[in-house]
Amino acid sequence: MNLKGRDFLTLKDYTPEEITYLLDLAADLKEKKKKGILVDTLRGKNIALIFEKTSTRTRCAFEVAAHDLGLGTTYLEPTTSQIGKKESIADTARVLGGMYEGIEYRGYGQEIVEEIAKYADVPVWNGLTNEYHPTQMLADLLTIREKFGHLKGLHFTYMGDARYNMGNSLMVACAKMGMHFTAAAPNSYFPNKDLVAYCEGIAKETGATITLTEDAKEAARGADVLYTDVWVSMGEPDDVWESRIKELTPYRITKELMSFANPKAIFMHCLPAFHDLKTKIGEEIYRKFGLTEMEVTDEVFESEQSVVFEEAENRMHTIKAVIAATLGAR
Ligand code: CP
Ligand code: NVA
Questions:
Q1: To which H or E segment does residue 170 belong?
Q2: Full strand arrangement of the beta sheet holding 72-76
Q3: Which has the least CB within 10 A, 43, 115, 124, 203?
Q4: Taking Cα atoms as reference points, which of 29, 49, 42 lies closest to residue 125?
Q5: Which ligand sits closest to the CA of 129?
Q6: What three-state secondary structure class fits 251?
Q7: Distance 273 CA to ligand 2 centre (A)
Q8: Mean pLDDT over all residues of the chain?
Q9: Is residue 206 within 8 Å of 178, Cβ to Cβ?
Q10: What is the distance between the alpha carbons of residues 301 and 253, in angstroms, rounded to a whole number?
């Protein structure tokens, strides 16, 4: 398998075999890291990390992974760079492509990361756009594989806003890996029809299935994985909170909902999560709407079934695999 020089913009561009290769590589790099074996064969190279939206996991995962591989990093954000204000995306991509061996981009429309990839002659990695979050997918798949020993045939249920980056990406990931994907949400939060049709096409080849339903309990029944995300994503206006709370509360992952799932089911969340009042936004929502928890209850989040922190750690191992594979580390 040779992925040297490839971009990583959405899992749509990767075959199931290539995804499995990246998961295997991540598992190997994880084991080496735990044993203290250095794999810093990319010494002398550098990568640029562009973040137009905030981040804890993705930024730290890229920085730690890069440093472990021997790479230098530069972190760029809109207030301290010319990106978008004084310099176009195409010009920025060509400038960075001349200095760095790879570029990560987190921001708004998918078309922006695609434009960077078009103009930069080096691998470009999508660190989250409105439409897709592909590096998160590798961490999620690795975590599920660690827990169940395989991916094919597992029942995966996503609760909540299924038409944004997480819902879209998880549907693609499950379709590619032959998993049974169910999204539960009000009809208006279903992923767009073209993407559903694309995933159904892939599903026919891999044995996956795609189900969209408004019935949360039916969706949870027999699931191996219950997954959710925040109700309002980065970059969305504050005035959508009220309708999101009203429409998505029936899809909150509670202990009762977990009881419909496989007794060995795991709870997953890309994080950050609103499961208590220990955040500024969580507190504001409590003051305005009286909610003490949102997409998941604190009880489920803190339960034995929750694997969210292992999932977060796996962001680093999987991002390391993407960098290593596309930069041709040996
Ligand atoms: N899951 C995730 O992408 O987290 P950050 O926003 O902290 O990077
Ligand atoms: N849907 C969330 C994912 C965060 C990792 C957002 O875009 O804010």
A1: helix 165-176
A2: 72-76, 46-51, 102-106, 124-126
A3: 43
A4: 49
A5: 2
A6: helix
A7: 10
A8: 97
A9: yes
A10: 9
Ligand positioned closest to the Cα atom of 230? 2
Q: Is 326 in the pocket of ligand 1 (CB under 6 A)?
A: no
What's the CA-to-centroid distance between 271 and ligand 2, angstroms? 8
Cα(194) to ligand 1 centroid in Å equals 26
Give dist(CA 254, CA 226) in Å, integer: 10
| Structure token digits, residue 225 | 């994985």
Mean pLDDT across the stretch 71-97? 93
- Residues 258-309 pLDDT 10s: 999 999 999 999 999 999 999 999 999 999 999 999 999 999 999 999 999 9
Render 275-303 in DSSP notation, one character per residue.
SSS-SHHHHHHHHHH--S--SB-HHHHTS
Q: Tokens for 277?
A: 């009042």
Distance CA 96, CA 8 (A): 17
Q: Report residue 289 as tokens.
A: 């709407």
**Contact, 142 vs 272, CB < 8 A?**
no
Residue nearest atom 4 in ligand 1 by C-alpha distance: 57
Residue 276: what pLDDT? 95
Question: Token digits for 316?
Answer: 């680093």
Average pLDDT over residues 33-43: 97
DSSP 155: E
- Tell me the Cα Rg of the chain: 19
Q: What is the C-alpha separation between 253 and 250, in angstroms, rounded?
A: 9
193-223 pLDDT, tens digit per residue, is: 999 999 999 999 999 999 999 999 999 999 9
